[in-house]
Amino acid sequence: MSSSRPPSPSSSSAGADPEFGRAVEHDQRRRTFTSLYQRASADIIVTRKVRIPGGENGALLGHRFVVATDMHARDDWFPEASVHELVRHINAVDDVNAVVLVGDFVGNDASAIDWSAGIYADINAPTYATLGNHDHWTDPVRIERALTASGIDVLTNRNIELAPGLVLAGIDSCWGGTANPELALAGKDPDAKTVVLGHEPYLATKHNEFLHIAGHTHSGQVRLPIPVLGNVLTRLYMPRYSQPFPRRFYNRGNGSYVYTSAGVGYSTINWRFATPPEIVIIDI
Question: How many domains in the chain?
Fold first, then answer.
């Protein structure tokens, strides 16, 4: 197999440029350093894109969602500046039809919603939410009230029509909340494509709708590049109700999908590795 590697400075190839060789080696070192930094840094929000055709013959319905979850707002680990940065990333996305915030707005203190909810009001698109387990462990009434006052439609076991043939439903948390999938989906058009928000991935096992969007798992939050050790450590950071869809995208067949976001905040420790904070653009 021939190599595409540029000649090294000591190469005798005609026309070889030693400075070019050194520049390539420097660039390789820079890329390696950048890759390691991005794996370790918890300050770089990445934007992922997922395309799930919901129309006939693989066509898109023409609806774009932006997903953010697991902010865990608190004065030390995810302060006001971090929430502002998240909103800036969301607003940088073009042609958004709906922003969905899939729970765990606060960490260990519900009072964080008092300063964070108003920041979400700056989102430049209709915004919908469901609550997560941390919201229920602190003060769900206070959190839902603050979000509603900021113009966010909290879908607690109910659904709305976003567009003809497209429904958005929200299921409450199943860990501390009052999850009721049947109620959440009641009364909707049975032929409509339905996008379901439910914080814990386990909730996706309770329906077979078009798309379930979850958070909760942080994708393990710390994933080592050593397969065996990485798998063990990741399992240690996988909370209850993470299975059977712990991270990223799943095609369940029969036109049903699940996306579990890594979220943007922290739980247990204020560090991420190989699971950068993310927002997700989902085109359907």
Answer: 1
